[in-house]
Each structure stands twice: as structure tokens, then as C-alpha cells.
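re: that chain from earlier
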Amino acid sequence: MERHALAILEQNDLCNWRDTKQIQASGKQGGTFRTITPKLLYYLIEESQKFGGDVLDQFWEQLGACDDKLKENSLKQENFVSAQKSFEALFRGLDPKNVNFKPVLDMAAEYFTHLGVAFMNPGRRKSGTSTAFSVSEVVNEETDKLLQRVNEEGDFGKRKQELLKALSFKRDGNFCLLTDQAFRPFNKRGLLPTLAHIIPNSVHGKPDTLKCIAMFAGAAAVDEVVHHLNNIGNVMNMQHDAHSSYDNLEWGIEAKEEGGEVKYIFRLVPTDPGIRGMGIITLRDDDEIRFGRGPEGKKLGNGPLPNICNLQLAVARVLKMSGAADIILEWKDHADDDGLYRLFIASEEFCDMLDAKLFLSGRAVVA
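^ sequence. v structure.
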């Protein structure tokens, strides 16, 4: 069923979805708007399958809800031959122009809003604006004491971020793993560190986002995100510009086991082996990110949690390769009506804004 779904979505012109109201990319190609809905669904299914997620089943369920005939024309017993053959079998006795694809388009809009926005809108200020002195207050404490204090702190707060930053130094060392630049307070000419969350804080307390993660990657992935969202397994120290490019999904971290150990790989999005990262990042796609080189690397897990790294990378690939990331970045740029730059936009407000824009622009189908 996966091959049938991907083939049909890849040949999206077969369904004439351009004649329906749907999420669209803003750039014109050949005088027409290039729709992103099929691509968004394509990459959601492709990446979800790697986790054993349920997006594929959800897609077929929603497609069947578009017309009873589509339920009857199930492809479960059909061997895959080509996209054309799959299309002909699925739409046997139907004209796609007469099918109301609202359930499928609503599904795409839900992932766009609740998964895409959450992962591209961290929703809280980065902790890198704190002073080197505030870090040095805690960095010399014993690791066990730091871990205890992290657990005693609430879910968020500046103090907890400084504790996590100190633990990251102990795990990974006193320099940026992406640029090799030294950090303060260990080098007086160094850069101020920014604490980066692998999975952004903005997913906290967002049931719709957690539901999307569960469908995309399974219930176990949600449990891991919820339990480790603001803990050492979901953070690393970076310099500011490397963090900004990470927030914009320009790159991610692939974690894979080799010889019983986890190896962390720098990945551009989309992947482009051998090509160097943007800005002053010194790593190239497929280079190893050397986590765990700090004095307490082994004790602190030698790096972030592998499943969390791979989840973020998968979502980044979906959003970037479908074109959804470009739309979200564009809307974030125009979100501030007073023309002033803001460090962040509250996630709930931004989601409401996106819902409204989808409705008013005709990019979301309404009953």
C-alpha cells in the first residue's frame, strides 16, 4: 500500500488537485501555483514508515472518506505495477474532478499547522543571551548535583536552562561541535553559548502536536519527547548562528548504532553528502558530530537521545522537501504587523494566525 500511495502522490497531476482549494506554495512556476499538498503527504508517509508510524493508514482512511467508491476500489489486493495502473484501479468508475478531497486536505493542513509550525517556531527565547557569569556559577558543580537540581526545577525557566547548559559542557566539551569555536567562560575571547533543544520546547502542552507526533512516529516517540523534552537528552550547546540555521531546518542530526555504540551524523536537509554546512559550520554532510568529549561524556549518555535526533531530522525533511517550511518562514516574516523584529512568536497565537490564513486564502478546504 505504501508504493501505491507514494506513486499516486508523486504523480499528483493525475488527481487534478490543482482544481481544488488547498495549501499552495507561494512561488509561481510556469504561470501556475505549485501545490505542496501531495508532496507534504508523500514525505509524511515516507518518513513515517521508517518509524513504523500510522500516517500511511491515516491517508488511506481519509482518502476513503472522500468517496464511497474509493473504499470499494481498495488497492490492498493489487500488486504495484505503476502509478498509472494504481490510479486507474483506485479511481475506477470515478472522475477525480468530481471527488471532494476535503478529508485528505484537512489531514495535510493538520500536520502543516500542528507539526510544521511547532517544529519551526520554538516559542521561547534562546538561552544564549545569558551572561558567561551565570553559566560559570553552576558549571563547576558536581555532575550528580547538577542532575539533581535539574530534576528539582520546573519544566522551564532560565535557571533550569543554565543547569542544562552546564551539563552539556560536561558531556560535550567547552566548544561548539559544529564550528569548533570555544565558548565563554572557558575562553575569555570565546562566544556566548546558546542552549539548543533538539525537539523544540513549543511542543510542550500542545495535544494536537503530540497527536501528530504519535501518528507520525508512534506512541513511544511521544512518551520519549514528553519525558525528555527539557532534559540533557534533548539539548546541546551551539553558537548562535548554528542554532538559527538549525531552527530553520537547514540541517539535522542522524543517530545510528554502529558496533553497539551510537554515531551522530551531520545531515543537511535535504541530504547532500560531502557538502559543507552553511555559514561558519565546518562539518560536511555525512561527517560525524563528536558528542561526548567532555569530562562527563560517558556518564551523561555520550550525546542526545538517538530517537529524538532522528524524529527531528525526519520532520525537517518532510517540511523542507515538501516546501511547507518555505511557507511557514514566509508567514513568520510577515507575522509582525508593526514591522518590528521579534525573537519569537507564541506558538498558540501563531497557530491561530496560520489557521486563519489557511481559511482566508482558500488554502484550507471548508465544508
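Confidence is low (pLDDT under 50) at residues 18-34, 124-133, 337-347, 359-367.
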